[in-house]
Design brief:
The complex is a heterodimer.
Chain A lengths: L1 H10 L3 H4 L13 H6 L6 H12 L6 H9 L6 H5 L6 H16 L3 H11 L2 H13 L6 H8 L23 H4 L3 E2 L8 E4 L3 H5 L2 H13 L3 E4 L8 H5 L3 H15 L6 E4 L2 H13 L6 H13 E3 H9 L14 E5 L3 H7 L3 H8 L4 E3 L15 H4 L1 H18 L3 E4 L2 H13 L5 E4 H8 L2
Parallel strand pairs in A: 2-3, 2-4, 4-5, 6-7, 6-8, 8-9
Antiparallel strand pairs in A: 1-3
Helix pairs in contact in A: 1-4, 4-5, 5-7, 8-15, 13-24, 16-17, 16-19, 18-20, 20-24, 22-23
Chain B lengths: L3 H11 L4 E2 L2 H5 L15 E3 L7 H10 L4 E4 L17 E4 L6 E5 L4 E4 L5 H10 L16 H7 L6 H4 L6 E7 L5 E5 L11 H5 L8 E8 L6 E9 L2 H13 L6 E6 H11 L9 E9 L1 H17 L4 E4 L3 H12 L1 H6 L4 E4 L9 H14 L3 E7 L4 E8 L4 H20 L18 H5 L1 H14 L14
Parallel strand pairs in B: 2-4, 3-4
Antiparallel strand pairs in B: 1-2, 5-6, 6-9, 7-8, 7-9, 10-12, 10-13, 11-12, 11-15, 14-16, 15-16
The chains are: A alpha/beta, B alpha+beta.
């Protein structure tokens, strides 16, 4: 099989990563999908063996391996717990791109990623049309939205409680901004990310409020492109690279100290996935990517580290406020080790009493477009999160990622529990009066 | 090839979703945590109740399909690698119910696929204690622990898995249900079949249900770390602690290579010039713990410890144990392939064993980090290599051959807790002699005449 040989050559690039797995199986303890299915092909060790066997032509079913690879939340729980330090996300994203390059991408996805999402202005126009016709989506519109960042197509499914697209997205409320650096010279670029821009504009509003409260000057260009993770996790490296380039044009070589985002997934993508894919870009772009990645920071980390006095909090004292708990987005805690700062932002608001839930850092089951393609499994994973939220007794669950917010809203509203979902920066901004 | 009609029968018995026959799915059950040749099974079965197990085994027996039971596939000796001809893997991870935790009679009944750490957690929530804590407890199954007679860090004081098995129900190779042991502390009814089953690595029967002993937990504990500038002094301290009739619940050892690797990995301020670290924990009644901790400290100082650090709170205790938890991750990051051995010697022979291991590293020009359970002489020399480097890997294999010779010469054993499986069956005769193997084969032959229960493991054949 000459063709399969070609695939095996391409997968050979991954060998250095594949051999570091010592098959200890510790990933089984933390994988949220494996906990539901018990299938070895759903856990990192099994997928790594399938890739190795495919690359050594012991296994000759690339289509089937692709399916198993896509059955993954990309939450990084396994990577965070891996004794031998296998870079699992790196490995799986590259493997998806290689296998999809070999097999070809489904035409609908290709059209969305390459024709629409790489053109931010067009993408925004389509979304704004869609938001006015929610509930009467035509199928093509559903596909466009569905293949993108998360469950935009929720409106199409009857049994799902969804977060509608915002009537007015953030980029329409807040036109592009470029304030001159202030006296203390702190200036940041703000990258809301598609979900905050189009579904949760209030998170962007709260971010602006908090930044301005601290005298931080903001640069926010128009027509920002998607961070690229939906395309890359679908194996479309070409579209991913186009989106990165769009953003490089807007942000590289501009005068600011930090690039802030209120989206855990966008932060992790720009900070880790962009440099990880750097080898595919020419050297001058690689440099820009490295520089931008170094400046990129989660907004809760920025505010907490720079503007909130560090002290120990005693949660056992009931301050009598609204009980709030916090869900750790995988891409913030497991990818970037940011977990103290969002809690700090919540705790400094005296109107709230913080309670920790069990397994706060267990994945909510969203996993970007995973939640779209495997809704039932995503919900099963989510049910455990919902139980933990209930048991905490919280009235509000906070997090720091709009994709998790979508999942939590869906999980909680289906059971009519009356628990509200807020971004940590919303709670912080609320406390600023 | 397994006939389609037989696959249909399995599907009827277990449900279509619990029979995996596609090539891709089967490839994911061709290995375990031992670095051995991978073997793709012909069929993977995942029963979600114990009732159909009897028919499942009978079908395998009638059709001479070799059957390998697999929990979480963390075996370090190849015990869960299926047979090369028509191998069938039977997964237990859907047989994961805790049937009973009895606080009055201090036992629990479980299905074989219950995860060790989850079980220990549930038991602790009831105010009781299940001590066996193998390194893979976060993923390992209790069935796997019993089949391998798994050990762990608490072996010295609390014993290993076999000390907590009160009884079991299992199926023989004909699918017949066999009962052995009881929920009572005392039981001398019939042959002690449960003891034969413990550590039999799936070669004699298939577990249906296990009865495990629980004990009251200790009320207090105290962790400490002692730094030595020679392995001998560390080892003398271990001997002296035992000689003065104290039994720490854990007594762990890290060699210089491991200390340096852990420090490079975590930067926790470990003394990289130290030749040995002992991590010691005493537990029991608070007064006893306080008194014994002082005595252990005095002994270590007397034997020449250059520094002793006692944990003042939970955070410090955690920091001490982090060094031990980091040992394998830190070592395994140095090279792509890690071969973890568990040859065990009488505890007084630890210095000789460590010297022997260091000599092997020099002789074969390979890196070996050694850590492990000093209190029970169960060391884990960890060979760091790259399995793609054929020449080096051959040297590693030679060094391992010699490691076993050294252990046996010192009056030790091939395996403290990982099992014999495929990896060490060729060495068995050196330790036990031919007679033992002949008798073992007779037992196997009479209990499993068609040789369908995990063939090839332990005694070869």
């Amino acid at each position: 099989m000459a063709e399969l040989y070609e695939l095996s050559m391409l997968l050979g690039d991954l060998e250095e990563q594949l051999v570091t797995c010592m098959r200890c199986g510790m990933c089984q303890a933390v994988c949220p999908l494996y906990a539901e299915t018990g299938r070895e092909t759903d856990v990192a060790r099994g997928k790594i063996v399938l890739l190795e066997h495919l690359s050594r032509e012991l296994l000759k079913e690339p289509e089937a391996v692709k399916q198993r690879l896509e059955n993954c939340l990309l939450c990084g729980s396994c990577a965070a717990a891996c004794p031998s330090g296998v870079k699992v996300l790196d490995l799986f994203l590259k493997a998806r791109a290689i296998i999809n390059g070999y097999l070809g991408l489904p035409p609908a996805k290709k059209a969305v990623f390459r024709q629409i999402m790489t053109r931010p202005a067009l993408f925004n126009r389509l979304i704004s049309i869609a938001s006015r016709f929610q509930g009467v989506f035509t199928r093509p519109a559903g596909e466009i939205l569905g293949a993108s960042c998360a469950r935009f197509e929720s409106a199409l499914l009857q049994d799902r409680h969804f977060m509608p697209l915002a009537r007015i997205p953030w980029h329409a409320k807040m036109p592009e901004t470029d304030e001159p650096a202030g006296p203390d010279k702190t200036k940041v670029a703000f990258y809301p990310g598609c979900l905050v821009d189009k579904v949760f504009p209030d998170v962007a509003k709260s971010s602006f409020k908090a930044l301005r409260h601290h005298g931080v000057k903001i640069y926010m260009p128009a027509n920002q492109a998607c961070c690229g993770i939906p395309a890359l996790s679908s194996g479309d490296r070409k579209a991913f690279m186009q989106m990165v380039r769009c953003n490089l044009e807007l942000f590289a070589d501009k005068d600011f100290q930090y690039l802030l985002t209120p989206c855990a997934t966008c932060t992790a993508t720009i900070k880790e996935i962009w440099p990880m894919m750097g080898q595919y870009f020419p050297p001058e772009e690689q440099e820009k990517i490295t520089a931008l990645a170094a400046k990129t920071m989660d907004i809760t980390q920025f505010i907490a580290d720079k503007y909130v006095l560090q002290r120990k909090y005693d949660d056992s004292v009931d301050k009598g406020g609204v009980k709030v708990t916090y869900h750790d987005p995988c891409h913030l805690k497991k990818s970037l080790n940011v977990h103290v700062q969002p809690r700090t932002l919540i705790r400094v608001n005296p109107a709230y009493t913080f309670v920790e839930m069990d397994e706060a850092d267990r994945c909510c089951g969203m996993g970007g477009s995973f939640g779209l393609q495997h809704y039932d499994l995503s919900k099963k994973v989510g049910n455990r999160k919902r139980q933990n939220i209930y048991q905490s007794g919280a009235e509000v669950v906070s997090t720091a990622c709009p994709a998790c917010m979508l999942q939590l809203i869906d999980l909680l509203s289906q059971s009519h529990a009356g628990i509200r979902v807020k971004h940590a920066v919303q709670i912080y901004a609320q406390g600023l009066g | 090839m397994i006939k389609q009609s037989l696959i249909r029968e399995f599907e009827k018995l277990l449900g279509v979703q619990n029979v995996l026959s596609s090539e891709t799915d089967r490839h994911a059950y061709s290995y375990d945590a031992a670095m051995l040749e991978q073997v793709v099974p012909e069929l993977v079965l995942r029963p979600d109740r114990t009732e159909p197990l009897s028919d499942l085994i009978r079908l395998c027996n009638e059709n001479r399909l070799p059957l390998t039971v697999r929990g979480s596939g963390t075996n370090l000796s190849g015990g869960t690698i299926p047979d090369k001809k028509n191998g069938v893997v039977v997964l237990t991870n859907a047989l994961n119910r805790i049937l009973e935790i009895n606080a009055e009679d201090l036992y629990a009944r479980v299905e074989p696929g219950v995860i060790t750490a989850q079980f220990a957690g549930k038991v602790a929530a009831r105010g009781l204690f299940y001590p066996p804590d193998p390194g893979s407890q976060a993923v390992s199954t209790l069935g796997g622990n019993v089949a391998e007679n798994a050990g762990g860090l608490r072996g010295l004081k609390y014993g290993v898995t076999e000390n907590y098995v009160m009884g079991m129900d299992f199926f023989d190779s004909n699918g017949e249900l066999i009962r052995t042991g009881s929920r009572t502390v005392k039981c001398v009814t019939g042959f002690n079949l449960k003891s034969l089953m413990i550590g039999s690595e799936g070669t004699l029967g298939v577990f249906k249900e296990l009865i495990l002993k629980l004990i009251p937990p200790p009320l207090a504990s105290q962790a400490m770390l002692a730094v030595f500038d020679s392995v001998e002094r560390a080892s003398q301290s271990v001997s002296a602690i035992i000689a003065e009739k104290m039994v720490p619940c854990t007594l762990e050892f890290l060699d210089n290579f491991t200390i340096r690797s852990v420090e490079a990995f975590r930067h926790a301020g470990l003394p990289t010039e130290a030749q040995a670290l002992l991590l010691i924990e005493m537990d029991g009644h608070p007064a006893q713990v306080a008194e014994e901790t002082q005595k252990v400290e005095d002994i270590c100082r007397r034997e020449g410890a250059v520094r002793i650090q006692k944990a003042k709170d939970d955070a410090e205790r955690d920091a001490i144990w982090q060094a031990r938890r980091d040992a394998l991750p830190a070592l395994s990051r140095l090279k792509p392939t890690t071969v973890l051995e568990d040859a065990t010697v009488p505890r007084s022979k630890i210095p000789a064993m460590v010297r022997g291991i260091n000599e092997l590293a020099r002789k074969y020009n390979i890196q070996i980090g050694t850590f492990g359970h000093a209190g029970d002489g169960n060391l884990h020399p960890t060979f760091l290599t790259d399995r793609r480097d054929k020449a080096e890997f051959a040297r590693v294999e030679k060094a391992i051959d010699e490691l076993f010779e050294i252990a046996l010469k010192l009056g030790g054993t091939l395996s403290g807790e990982h099992g014999i499986g495929l990896a060490k069956s060729k060495y068995l005769v050196q330790e036990t002699g031919q007679g033992t193997i002949r008798l073992s084969r007779k037992i196997k032959q009479s209990l499993d005449p068609e040789n369908i229960l995990n063939p090839g493991k332990i005694i070869g054949g």
